[in-house]
UniProtKB/TrEMBL annotation, chains A, B:
<comment type="similarity">
    <text>Belongs to the RNA methyltransferase RsmE family.</text>
</comment>
<keyword id="KW-0949">S-adenosyl-L-methionine</keyword>
<feature type="domain" description="Ribosomal RNA small subunit methyltransferase E PUA-like">
    <location>
        <begin position="17"/>
        <end position="56"/>
    </location>
</feature>
<keyword id="KW-0698">rRNA processing</keyword>
<dbReference type="Pfam" id="PF20260">
    <property type="entry name" value="PUA_4"/>
</dbReference>
<keyword id="KW-0963">Cytoplasm</keyword>
<dbReference type="InterPro" id="IPR015947">
    <property type="entry name" value="PUA-like_sf"/>
</dbReference>
<comment type="function">
    <text>Specifically methylates the N3 position of the uracil ring of uridine 1498 (m3U1498) in 16S rRNA. Acts on the fully assembled 30S ribosomal subunit.</text>
</comment>
<protein>
    <recommendedName>
        <fullName>Ribosomal RNA small subunit methyltransferase E</fullName>
        <ecNumber>2.1.1.193</ecNumber>
    </recommendedName>
</protein>
<dbReference type="Pfam" id="PF04452">
    <property type="entry name" value="Methyltrans_RNA"/>
</dbReference>
<dbReference type="InterPro" id="IPR029028">
    <property type="entry name" value="Alpha/beta_knot_MTases"/>
</dbReference>
<keyword id="KW-0489">Methyltransferase</keyword>
<dbReference type="GO" id="GO:0005737">
    <property type="term" value="C:cytoplasm"/>
</dbReference>
<dbReference type="GO" id="GO:0070042">
    <property type="term" value="F:rRNA (uridine-N3-)-methyltransferase activity"/>
</dbReference>
<keyword id="KW-0808">Transferase</keyword>
<dbReference type="InterPro" id="IPR046886">
    <property type="entry name" value="RsmE_MTase_dom"/>
</dbReference>
<dbReference type="InterPro" id="IPR029026">
    <property type="entry name" value="tRNA_m1G_MTases_N"/>
</dbReference>
Length: 247, 247
């Protein structure tokens, strides 16, 4: 069944006001009276809703649904700004794979420079991709998308997390492959994890120092070298496997 | 260091004959006498090699390298033919994530029809993507790319594997998330695994019956619904995490 995210708290009846949502509901899906959809408000609860009026965009809540597909931990991924449209792919796939937030920051070795208007436009585009992917993969929440203009602002957030992992290629080359699994065994439900990835050029030694000074841990993600847009997908799959499947 | 796959057995000296490889080596990378690269022959061993003659495309083998990044098991993924260029992405990412072979078959609910010349052309394109990704991710082998024209030929291969898993969305919906981890615990190094994925429409009940009749096991891949091109990336990451990192 078609699922839509709706801003704010659940009321009854519900009147949809977001233009894109209205367009998808009544022009693309051509909903009519008595059709049913799933609405998800900011409390993350899925609710079955029935169209009361297709001209007033009005719905009646039928019932709450028990369906919950979020990870037991909140995983944020943070990529160094990569070239081109790679963040589009990362955003779509990371949303399907359960990311709680999708961030990017200007890494020392990022080739692209995004700031001001360009950054805001990019962020808006990625937020739309996350919304669409969250609806399709039936998520309970839409991942937050955030592009940091200054690395210093990104660095300040590191202390907000229970664990911060640095996906570090040299660690992978050195064969240190047990750290992530060992660390994940100590993670408790409800905790906040952050995975930091470099841009195509990797993570600079200065950045490693800054991340480690804030308590981050270097981890390898398997013995193979992955592109910058592939590593976050591995990390999310690994956390899902460790915490959702391996019981 | 730049890595190239070379057909056949390792000799000494080596003369490169593949046109694309020659072009990349001597036009793109502009190798000259005494430059070093890594050559990987069909035995999967990486060898440091030095240019002897850039006009004759001749190399001298310096030494064998111990670097081995292949999974302890051979994982084949088989996707129902998906729409558009999705297999391009699957092939590139699955190669980075360690797939031993990347297959696709005409699923009951595949929308596209590929056969004859079109299939051969598609397969050739995907093989090039796999080769490029294998070089970039420093693999020891290039994954085999194979598009089956007939599903019956695909079905015949199932008995060649030690375990065949069906990535089945209904299983995920039913919350059966422990099967894959339980099964992977019984897998031994050197064994051959196959993961079967549907096309966008999923896997038909008739196909499920045929796969199960051949001994395949339905598994869920986490509680979220993934697009057809994302599920193989999850499966490969999960196997890597279970068998390469979780020790």
């Amino acid at each position: 069944m078609q699922q839509y995210f709706v801003k704010g708290k659940a009321g009854n009846p519900v009147i949809i006001t977001d233009k894109d949502t209205i367009k998808h509901m009544f022009q693309v899906m051509r909903l009519v009276e008595d059709d049913e959809v799933v609405l998800v408000f900011e409390d993350g609860i899925k609710r079955l809703a029935r169209v009361i009026s297709s001209s007033n965009y009005q719905f009646d809540i039928v019932e709450e649904l028990a369906d919950h597909v979020e990870m037991p931990v909140q995983v944020t991924i943070a990529s160094g700004f990569p070239k081109g449209d790679k963040l589009d792919l990362v955003t779509q796939k990371a949303t399907e794979l359960g990311a709680h937030a999708i961030w990017a920051y200007p890494a020392d070795w990022s080739v692209v420079k995004w700031d001001g208007k360009k950054l805001a436009k990019k962020e808006e585009k990625l937020a739309k991709i996350a919304l669409g992917a969250a609806e399709q993969s039936k998520r309970n929440v839409v991942p937050e998308v955030k592009l940091f203009e200054k690395k210093s602002d990104f660095l300040k957030t590191l202390t907000d997390f229970d664990k911060v992992f640095i996906a570090y290629e040299e660690t992978a080359k050195a064969g240190e492959l047990a750290t992530l699994a060992r660390e994940l065994q100590t993670v408790k439900a409800g905790q906040k994890l952050l995975f930091i990835f470099g841009s195509e050029g990797g993570i600079s030694p200065k950045e490693i120092d800054a991340f480690e000074a804030a308590g981050s841990i270097k981890v390898g993600l398997g013995p193979r070298i992955m592109r910058t847009e592939t590593a976050p997908l591995y990390a999310l799959s690994a956390v899902s496997y460790a915490m959702e499947m391996n019981q």
